[in-house]
Amino acid sequence: MKTFNLFDKILSSLCAVGFILWLGGSIIRLVIGFDIFIPGTAILKGYSNELSLHLAQLYAITAPYVDISFIIVFLVTLYLLFKFSSQLKQNGWLFMCAILIILIAIPNGYLFYYDYNLVIAAAKDGITFNSPEIQEYFLHRFTKLNYLDPLVLLSGITIPILVVFRPLNNKIRNKNTTLNQNDSK
């Protein structure tokens, strides 16, 4: 059985911090982004163009922190998945967490594309909320791609639940069967 060395412990801690920043930052970004819309609809609230642009720029400013955090989580997960692949049979919950992170990377990659272009567009001088770049990369994300963020966040929230309850953990089952066998003697 492989054990965690100091490097693995540092990477795991970095992964945990990155995961917290990614999940929390994603929720905060959604709150910022959906503030422009009337709740339950895709209709703009009627804020002034300056305030709407400010919210779109605030949303864009937070993108690099969240996106880089997820990239760190993804890369560390791949590293640990390959290094400890032999232990995944005993720890099914760990395998499920790794698979969820890998699956989340697909829609997140698509959303990163929108984030990157929004950051570039929001940094331009003379940009307005009605500019085609803001309309495409900000409003399109919330009106046409609004199913991706909740899907990613629900999967992200599932990961800490799996870590806490640890389903499919063979070590616990083996201890329970050993205890039950000792009770029957």
User: Which stretches of 5+ consecutive residues score pLDDT under 50?
Assistant: none
Strand content: under 5%
Helix proportion: over 70%
Rg value:
21 Å
What composes the largest sheet?
A: none
Average pLDDT reading: 90
Give the number of helices: 6
What shape does the CA trace take?
elongated
Structural class category: mainly alpha
| Termini gap | 31 Å
What order do the SSEs take from the amino end to the carboxyl end, as H and E? Answer: HHHHHH
Tell me how many strands there are. Answer: 0
Concise synopsis of the structure shown:
The protein has 185 residues and is mainly α. Helix content is 76%, strand content 0%.
Protein architecture, described:
With 185 residues, this protein is an all-alpha fold. Helices cover 76% and strands 0% of the residues. The two termini are 31 Å apart.
